[in-house]
Amino acid sequence: MTELFDGYHDNYRDVVQSSIDFSGLPHHFFMRAKADLLGNLIAQRLDTERPDMLDVGCGVGSLHPLLHGMVGRLSGIDVSSASLAQARADNGRVDYRKFDGRTFPFDDASFDLVTAVCVMHHVVPAEWAQFIAEMRRVTRRGGLVCVIEHNPYNPLTRLAVARCEFDRDAVLLGAGKARKLMAAGGLREIGARHFLLLPWDTKPARRLEAILSSVPLGGQYAAFGTA
């Protein structure tokens, strides 16, 4: 995986955009949707207004500019040194560290919010439980673990994955599987929300998506649980 993503550090956004061009939407639209969802979860599930956050598998840090003012200390880890170098160049205030693919380079209970955004489908399924265990380990008690993933039951999502050069070996997991992994890992108050159902960046569309978030139709979902 390290070699795979090292090769895309300088054109990651372009490759992703080419895989979703059929939607007529820019990559930024999808990143903003994720940031907005995280903001809602922070407001509804955490006691602290600006949580310390770890982004696991952060890549080139595309999400991080959208989190300014939403989180406190922000850290990111990735297996790709080249991607981290690009992330550091773009986001000078974020603490980026190399990840060996198994053990996160942080002490127990270091963060209020730990996320993995479209990362688990690159992890070997046999290691999914270990991955969730590491997310929980570095999360403070009462903090939140959040996995954002592609919804394998959405045909347009499957088309985007099939068109993406670095998703060719991806193993998609549904929200139900993610919730089961979290429950087995000892997380509590587990839930899920589907989003990116409607291709319009308008307030009515966002409100309708919120109403339909429990229906497994959106292009992506967030599964989350309390440590």
* Shape assignment: globular
- Report the total helices: 8
What is the overall pLDDT average? 87
Largest sheet: 7 strands, mixed
The strands making up the biggest β-sheet line up spatially as 3-2-1-4-5-7-6
Beta-strand content: 15-25%
Number of strands: 7
Give an overview in words:
The structure is a single chain. The chain is of the alpha/beta class and 227 residues long. Helices cover 36% and strands 21% of the residues. It is built from eight helices and seven strands, in the order αααββαββαβααβαβ. It has a seven-stranded mixed sheet, with helices on both faces. It is globular.
Give short descriptive properties of this protein.
disordered N terminus, 36% helix, alpha/beta, 7-stranded mixed beta sheet
Concise synopsis of the structure shown:
The chain has 227 residues and is of the alpha/beta class.
Produce the secondary structure layout.
Blueprint lengths: L1 H5 L5 H9 L6 H19 L7 E4 L17 E5 L2 H10 L4 E4 L12 E7 L10 H10 L1 E12 L4 H9 L11 H10 L3 E8 L7 H9 L8 E7 L1
Parallel strand pairs: 1-2, 1-4, 2-3, 4-5
Antiparallel strand pairs: 5-7, 6-7
